[in-house]
Write a structure and sequence with these properties.
This protein is of the alpha+beta class. About 35% of the residues lie in helices and about 20% in strands.
Length: about 70
């Protein structure tokens, strides 16, 4: 089995949460953080099972960095 390490960015959306994996531009949602993350993992598993190696390579971004920043805007 091949082991992957992905990033999950979670954001509140109305009454639920959206989970985004920036490495492959895939998202899912759920009513809790845990559910959104579980749904994202399931979507990723299905993608990796069904996609060709070429498609995975094409969609897979290299290094992904997540940070926060502050700014002012007039």
């Amino acid at each position: 089995m091949k082991r992957y390490s992905f990033t999950a960015i979670l954001e509140r959306d109305g009454d639920g949460y959206v989970a985004l994996c920036p490495e492959v531009d895939m998202a899912s949602q759920g009513s809790t953080v845990e559910e959104a993350l579980a749904n994202l993992k399931e979507a990723m598993e299905l993608f990796l099972e069904c996609a060709s190696a070429a498609e995975v390579k094409e969609r897979l971004h290299g290094e992904v960095l997540v940070t926060r920043f502050e700014m002012t805007h007039a």
